Amino acid sequence: MSTDVALDLPGYVAGTWDFDAAHTYVGFVVRHLVVTKVRGRFDNVEGHIVTAKNPLESTVEVSVDLQSVNTNNETRDNHLRSADFFESEANPRMTFRSTGVRQNGDDFILEGLLTIKDVTRPVELEYEYAGVTPDPWGGTRIGFSAKGEINRKDYNVNFEGLQNGLAVVADKVEIVLDVEAKLRPEEA
């Protein structure tokens, strides 16, 4: 794809962008007992995006504090921090580092390496560019949404709870991200 692809993304600006933690959501959805879905998020997320002149050469790095897991249930959150799930005292951070971007029809795929506990595996996230806008404080903001799916057991998150013969937690976990990032002042 040519470097003119930026013309297809309204307002697109090359630069380095830092996540705005107050306006960024990193969450997950997992089925519980086959009948419902539990949603959770991580309240402490850091990251940056480097948008290249050619958007398909852009990169992103994300670091998530696993202690900050929040499902609106303290008992469940403490269980998720335990050795049954994240083992967050020994493995305090989950990280993602992009390895490539490709266009798939009208959509974009972000390829990268996700590390949870002691395992790093490739993942693909389908993402949407939301745009660029000035903020009320003289800065510039960019937005993206992404989603993907992993198997928790691929990352040694092997809890096998059963209730009435049903798995308490499904293996498949949906990943959901909404990121707002601010252009670094020296690049504005």
Folded structure, characterized:
The protein has about 190 residues and is mostly beta strands. The chain has one domain (about 5-185): Lipid/polyisoprenoid-binding, YceI-like (Lipocalin, Beta Barrel), CATH 2.40.128.110. About 5% of the residues lie in helices and about 55% in strands. It contains 1 helix and 13 strands, in the order E-E-E-E-E-E-H-E-E-E-E-E-E-E. The strands form 2 sheets. The protein has an 8-stranded antiparallel β-barrel. It has a two-stranded antiparallel ribbon with strand order 11-12. The longest helix has 8 residues, at about 75-80. It starts with 14 loop residues before the first strand and ends in a 5-residue tail after the last strand.
Keywords:
188 residues; mainly beta; Lipocalin; 8-stranded antiparallel beta barrel; two-stranded antiparallel ribbon; 1 helix; globular
Beta-strand residue percentage = over 45%
Strand order of the largest sheet: 1-4-5-7-8-9-10-13
| Total DSSP E strands | 13
Number of domains: 1
Global shape = globular
Mean pLDDT: 89
What is the CA-CA span between the terminal residues? 26 Å
Any idea of the CATH topology?
Lipocalin
Q: In the CATH hierarchy, what is the superfamily?
A: Lipid/polyisoprenoid-binding, YceI-like
User: Main sheet, how many strands, which sense, barrel?
Assistant: 8 strands, antiparallel, barrel
Radius of gyration: 18 Å
Helix proportion range: under 10%
CATH class: Mainly Beta
Order of helices and strands: EEEEEEHEEEEEEE
Give the number of helices.
Answer: 1
